[in-house]
Amino acid sequence: MSAREIADAVMELPESELLELARRIVATIAAEREISKKISDAVQGIEDIVTGKLTGLNETEFATR
User: Fold this and answer.
1) Is residue 26 a contact partner of residue 39, using CB atoms and an 8 Å limit?
2) Residue range 56-63: average pLDDT?
3) Burial class (CB in 10 A: 0-12, 13-18, 19+), 23
4) Cα dihedral sign for 37, 39, 45, 48?
5) Rounded distance, CA 58 to CA 64, Å?
6) Which pairs count as long-range contacts for 14-22, CB under 8 Å and 24+ apart, including other chains?
7) Of 14, 24, 61, 65, which residue has the fewest beta carbons closer than 10 angstroms?
8) Which domain holds residue 7?
9) Which of 55, 13, 56, 19 has its CA nearest to residue 40?
10) What's the pLDDT at 53?
């Protein structure tokens, strides 16, 4: 199976399985501990937004930060 075929199959996964796979991939990437932690935090942030746990800023809120 090619990387493209795997990617296409992965994109068909339900959202919860896709997020779990993203977590597992991040955990296995050989990166410096600090960078790996930042990536993991970013994936968690994406999950929080996708699942509605957090909401993003609108344009006005972003501009005033």
Assistant:
1) yes
2) 86
3) middle
4) negative
5) 10
6) 15/50, 19/43, 19/46, 19/47, 19/50, 22/46, 22/47
7) 65
8) 3-63
9) 19
10) 93
Output the pLDDT for position 49. 87
Closest CA to 15 of 42, 46, 41, 37: 46
Q: What's the CA gap between 27 and 4, in Å, rounded?
A: 22
- The pair of structure tokens assigned to 35 is 């960078």
What are the tokens at 22?
Answer: 């993203």
Structural domain count, the chain: 1
Q: Tens digit of pLDDT for each residue in 10-39?
A: 999 999 999 889 888 877 776 667 787 888
